[in-house]
Design goal:
This protein is α/β, with parallel strands linked by helices. Helix content is 34%, strand content 17%. It is globular and about 60 Å long.
């Protein structure tokens, strides 16, 4: 039996097509409690110690019952729970399947702590399911031991048959840990743009993280809304003019939906679309110029090909997992 694990909203969005496609058991690790009504067979109790990341690792390592009757586990991406479950499975000689394998910046501080976690998972994975050829090349260069497949990113399976328009809305999201200390600077620059471009509607679904919430006072001229459901968020992406964000997943979704995105980070592990649909903004003081360039030329060429997949990743993964020789 395969145990598919998720605990955050981005993880849920990317494992849902898998859960819908295969026979599996589902573990919810519970970081984003609003997902508690979603599909899962067991929920992990995270005990609160002084350090949140340590708490996740300690809670997983003590939860022996989650592996009962399991011969392989699938973890997604690069969260603390994904690394902890993969390591705990490895310690029990249970096969590890890594969904969204091979993404790299090779900078352990950007993103922190995700870059370290995904590298750790790669060293102990038996099957690596890569979104792109570049991700595969990273794993080959690192001489990882597991089998490697390029299947596309499952997030795109959720986006097929969506109508795309270009309105006057600029969609903004900001939440990454490495930006927390400079969020006032980012929000001030975004506010300047909003006040200067009155013909555009700047909208930010404010992330629930307390470090983000306390910076809302730095937003002026920006329409602040509560976190959106995924269905509403998809609609926003499909109808906006372009995006300002530090999100990794949004870079993939933007490429598939032919939207440009200003990536507010020092590094990105999704370099395939840099200069095409993704535009790296390494610091707040660079945002104004990049924004003006994108606003003057926000349409993506019709011949744009998304390198992150075709929206049928789950179907390919199912075929791989049904081939018992792969294990």
């Amino acid at each position: 039996m395969i145990l598919v694990c998720y605990g955050t909203r981005p993880e849920w969005i990317k494992v849902k097509p898998i859960i819908d496609a295969i026979n599996c058991r589902v573990l919810f690790t519970g970081q984003h409690s609003e997902l508690a009504n979603n599909k899962f067979d067991k929920r992990l109790k995270i005990h609160n110690y002084q350090n949140r990341l340590d708490s996740i690792f300690a809670s997983v390592m003590q939860a022996e019952d989650i592996f009962e009757g399991v011969d392989s586990v699938m973890v997604q991406g690069d969260t603390a729970s994904a690394a902890a479950i993969a390591l705990s499975a490895y310690n029990r000689k249970i096969k590890v399947i890594h969904l969204e394998a091979g993404l790299r910046t090779y900078d352990l501080d950007n993103p922190y702590p995700e870059e370290a976690y995904r590298q750790i998972i790669s060293r102990i994975s038996d099957i690596n399911l890569c979104p792109t050829e570049l991700n595969k090349a990273n794993l080959l260069q690192e001489k990882t031991n597991g089998k490697i497949y390029v299947v596309g990113n499952t997030v795109l399976d959720n986006l097929k048959d969506i109508d795309i328009t270009y309105g006057n809305e600029i969609l903004v999201t900001m939440h990454r840990r490495e930006n927390h200390d400079i969020l006032p600077l980012w929000f001030n620059e975004i506010s300047k743009l909003a006040l200067k471009n009155k013909d555009l509607k700047f909208t930010i679904p404010l992330h629930p993280n307390p470090n983000v919430q306390k910076c809302v006072k730095y937003l002026n001229g920006v329409h602040v809304v509560p976190p959106l459901t995924y269905e509403k968020m998809k609609s926003k992406i499909a109808s906006c003019r372009f995006i300002i964000s530090d999100s990794g997943g949004l870079q993939e979704e933007a490429s598939f939906l032919n939207k440009k995105i200003i990536v507010c980070r020092k590094e990105t592990e999704r370099t395939e679309t840099i200069g095409q649909t993704s535009f790296l903004c390494e610091s707040p003081d660079l945002l104004n110029n990049i924004f003006n360039e994108i606003n003057n030329d926000y349409l993506v060429p019709e011949n744009n090909i998304c390198p992150y997949g075709d929206g049928f990743a789950a179907k390919k993964i199912k075929q791989i997992l049904e081939n018992k020789s792969e294990f």
